[in-house]
């Protein structure tokens, strides 16, 4: 997985949506302390940049070196390359001591993780009982009825064979079926998912660039298959240009799971 994103790290950093401020305000409002946060699978730091507004210090890690090269430098964000899986000893050495973190986040990433191992680390490193874990994903972009219809056919018929179907189903299910063994944070009745929307202005070339940042697109490339064939491009062009507006607001539904570690 890490290798697939290495190939298009610059495109990923430039074209993927930024997360809405309301998401981070919501997370921060349910985190009692705001001293130290760990953003796991940070990529090029899309989430870490926003977390830095709310937390005194942020440690942002990724198993791929290339995306980290495109991360924005901020005085209170420390980027680190880590192995794909870490032992508790490595977490203590590279991240933080036991029961010392206020928040652990995973943006568009946790569905790729070895969850039992990751959750063991989270429960070890978060403050007890109110340390918070927040994990979110975003699902298929929404443009308008014409573009969405073409996109849905492309996603279902053309790209689906090249996704990791087990992993992708967790995202398509909006994290409703993901294992999440944590307690609701104070003030909430459950762990979600809670809904937000990320928005990004795009022209059609940028929308295509977003598609090329998919792991499915890269997998197809490895197999010698171009998903954005001429006929596919023509269908998108027809739908995109229907309203004569080249620039469009593309909306990405965001689905957040949030919980606290409790007394363990």
UniProtKB/TrEMBL annotation:
Keywords carried by this UniProt record: Methyltransferase, Transferase
GO biological process: methylation
Listed InterPro entries: Methyltransf_11, SAM-dependent_MTases_sf
Domain Methyltransferase type: from-to ranges: 39-128
Superkingdom of source: Eukaryota
CDD domains in UniProt: AdoMet_MTases
Any one GO molecular function term: S-adenosylmethionine-dependent methyltransferase activity
Stored Pfam families: Methyltransf_11
Protein name as annotated: Putative methyltransferase
């Amino acid at each position: 997985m890490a290798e697939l994103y290495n190939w298009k790290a610059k495109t990923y950093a430039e074209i993927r949506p930024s997360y809405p401020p309301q998401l981070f305000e919501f997370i921060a409002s349910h985190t009692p302390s705001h001293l130290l946060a760990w953003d796991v699978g940070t990529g090029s730091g899309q989430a870490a940049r926003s977390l830095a507004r709310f937390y005194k210090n942020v440690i942002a890690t990724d198993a791929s070196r290339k995306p980290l090269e495109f991360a924005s430098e901020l005085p209170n964000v420390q980027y680190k390359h880590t192995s794909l899986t870490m032992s508790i000893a490595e977490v203590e050495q590279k991240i933080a001591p036991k029961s010392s973190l206020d928040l652990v986040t995973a943006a568009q990433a946790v569905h790729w993780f070895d969850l039992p191992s990751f959750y063991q680390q989270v429960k070890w490193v978060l403050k007890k009982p109110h340390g918070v874990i927040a994990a979110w994903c975003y699902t298929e972009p929404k443009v308008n009825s014409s573009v969405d219809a073409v996109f849905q056919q492309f996603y279902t018929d053309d790209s689906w064979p090249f996704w990791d179907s087990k992993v992708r189903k967790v995202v398509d299910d909006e994290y409703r079926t993901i294992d999440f063994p944590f307690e609701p944070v104070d003030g909430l009745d459950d762990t979600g998912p809670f809904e937000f929307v990320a928005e990004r202005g795009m022209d059609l070339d940028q929308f295509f660039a977003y598609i090329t940042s998919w792991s499915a697109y890269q997998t197809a490339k490895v197999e010698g298959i171009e998903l954005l064939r001429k006929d596919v491009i023509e269908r998108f062009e027809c739908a995109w240009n229907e309203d004569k507006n080249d620039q469009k607001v593309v909306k990405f539904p965001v689905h957040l799971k949030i919980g606290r570690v409790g007394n363990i």
